[in-house]
TrEMBL record:
<feature type="binding site">
    <location>
        <begin position="370"/>
        <end position="372"/>
    </location>
    <ligand>
        <name>substrate</name>
    </ligand>
</feature>
<dbReference type="Pfam" id="PF00408">
    <property type="entry name" value="PGM_PMM_IV"/>
</dbReference>
<comment type="function">
    <text>Catalyzes the conversion of GlcNAc-6-P into GlcNAc-1-P during the synthesis of uridine diphosphate/UDP-GlcNAc, a sugar nucleotide critical to multiple glycosylation pathways including protein N- and O-glycosylation.</text>
</comment>
<feature type="binding site">
    <location>
        <position position="278"/>
    </location>
    <ligand>
        <name>Mg(2+)</name>
    </ligand>
</feature>
<feature type="domain" description="Alpha-D-phosphohexomutase alpha/beta/alpha">
    <location>
        <begin position="110"/>
        <end position="166"/>
    </location>
</feature>
<dbReference type="Pfam" id="PF21404">
    <property type="entry name" value="AMG1_III"/>
</dbReference>
<feature type="domain" description="Alpha-D-phosphohexomutase C-terminal">
    <location>
        <begin position="453"/>
        <end position="525"/>
    </location>
</feature>
<dbReference type="Pfam" id="PF02878">
    <property type="entry name" value="PGM_PMM_I"/>
</dbReference>
<dbReference type="InterPro" id="IPR005843">
    <property type="entry name" value="A-D-PHexomutase_C"/>
</dbReference>
<feature type="binding site">
    <location>
        <begin position="497"/>
        <end position="501"/>
    </location>
    <ligand>
        <name>substrate</name>
    </ligand>
</feature>
<dbReference type="InterPro" id="IPR016657">
    <property type="entry name" value="PAGM"/>
</dbReference>
<feature type="domain" description="Phosphoacetylglucosamine mutase AMG1">
    <location>
        <begin position="297"/>
        <end position="435"/>
    </location>
</feature>
<dbReference type="InterPro" id="IPR036900">
    <property type="entry name" value="A-D-PHexomutase_C_sf"/>
</dbReference>
<dbReference type="InterPro" id="IPR016066">
    <property type="entry name" value="A-D-PHexomutase_CS"/>
</dbReference>
<keyword id="KW-0597">Phosphoprotein</keyword>
<dbReference type="InterPro" id="IPR049023">
    <property type="entry name" value="AMG1_II"/>
</dbReference>
<keyword id="KW-0479">Metal-binding</keyword>
Amino acid sequence: MDSEALKKYSALHPKPAGLTLQYGTAGFRAKAEKLDHVMFRMGMLAVLRSKAVASTIGIMVTASHNPEEDNGVKLVDPLGEMLHPSWEEYATQLANAEEHELQQTITEICQKAAVNQHKDASVFIGRDTRPSSEKLSQSAIDGIFVLDGQYHDYGLVTTPQLHYMVCCQNTQGQYGKATLEGYYEKLSKAFTELIKQSSSSGESQKHLKIDCANGIGALKLSEMEPYFPKEVLIQLYNDGTKEKLNHLCGADFVKVHQKPPRGLDMKPNERCCSFDGDADRIVYYYQDATGLFHLIDGDKIATLISIFLKELLAKVGQTLKMAVVQTAYANGSSTRYLEETLKVPVHCVKTGVKHLHHKAQEFDIGVYFEANGHGTVLFSKAAETKIRRLAKEEKDNEKREAAKVLENMIDLINQTVGDAVSDMLVIEAILALKGLTVQQWDAVYTDLPNRLLKIQVADRRVIDTTDAERRAVTPPGLQEKIDALVKKYKLSRAFVRPSGTEDVVRIYAEADTQENADALAHEVSLAVYHLAGGKGAPPQPL
Ligand SMILES: CC(=O)N[C@H]1[C@@H](OP(=O)(O)O)O[C@H](CO)[C@@H](O)[C@@H]1O
Ligand SMILES: [Mg+2]
């Protein structure tokens, strides 16, 4: 490490005095103007991580569904996974070190993590369309440069595209070609193969309206369109040419407000979907003839995919172990349907993709989705090998054809991380192959009415949870109070947890009716306000 160069460069990216940030559920997130030093330092950390694991590491500059003024950064591990938890702590230390402690902190990280500083380092970097992203990614590049790392700047890409590139690179091309063209070709080839086998459905079945949240999804879908087969008739809305990123649109807005995004003209019964700002989440929806809005969230996506995969597994006659991984936010009806009707085991883990991904790796086929629409399917190496072999060698026609469908699903799904583009194509292929309308998909089960609220408290760390965040262990008395409130309603459930991305406590409630879900959520938020140090005026009923 050249300490003069480090001093010189870090002076160009000074840390605002007194500012401390934490590497949370989704990396660092803050107002963009507070992040320059963090980017520079994450450039350096990516170099250290790359040296430690002798692989290419990714840096993605994005704040996903947050407002346009925010930004953030996430590191991507060798196979496209989220940064290993043991390094999150190093990320936080490095981001918060004062200028004069910087060199010492780097040395300490190298010691603790056994980083061989003489090794080569390689970093892939990408960014979303925020006005601040270009400059911030340059700051990260300065950080890579100062520690002598090699880098490739992919410029504007979706978060899942960057994860894909990193995985391709570290598997020496086994996962695909580490270029945008490679990504488009791999996905569109698998998709085209899949829908070849669908009996041609009506014209209306082919149309899909996509709300791109005024983000990167619009750019990348336009680039990808020439690769699509002619059966795909997509119309892009909120493409970023007129309005602000994530403003009154995008997957998060639609999920939280349970209403259509602005800027998408929706006719009755049309199939529509929304991406989030960095295109790693997707939700579907439609409006029925009476004008009622129907949200089809991550739970229904997981269910559709599970139904489809289970049928295929039965056809190929293989006993591969399949499971669905959810979080506490999954609608109770989805869990019940999966366990009781579909007979697929369901596991509940803590919020955050890294937890879901990790759990899903335990199965031959692990389907994971957060209710908000972030998710994917993981196939174990053994399962993949078996399926590819059957697709090639199986003598029985029906079995071999089913194995081929599974093989194309493996190639279409971005197994590195949830991917709105890939998930959309998976869903479109399943609907086409099964001849399902969006209404039939929606009707697989009925969501329990639910409400998600957030409130501010003086220090959200006073709330500690257990049992995959479904029960609060502190502050004293809070869980007992929640239990008593839940008992007042039918089919009810409620829990609270501190957010990992915002300075708030989240409250979730579901019950037999919307009024009851709203009332329960409100009562629980009052309990949090009183027992966990609520800030400002007490929460008001909805
Ligand atoms: C209830 C909810 O939607 N929580 C989101 C949100 O996390 P919080 O820790 O709840 O702020 O952002 C995460 C990162 O995008 C996402 O993984 C998660 O699902
Ligand atoms: Mg996102």
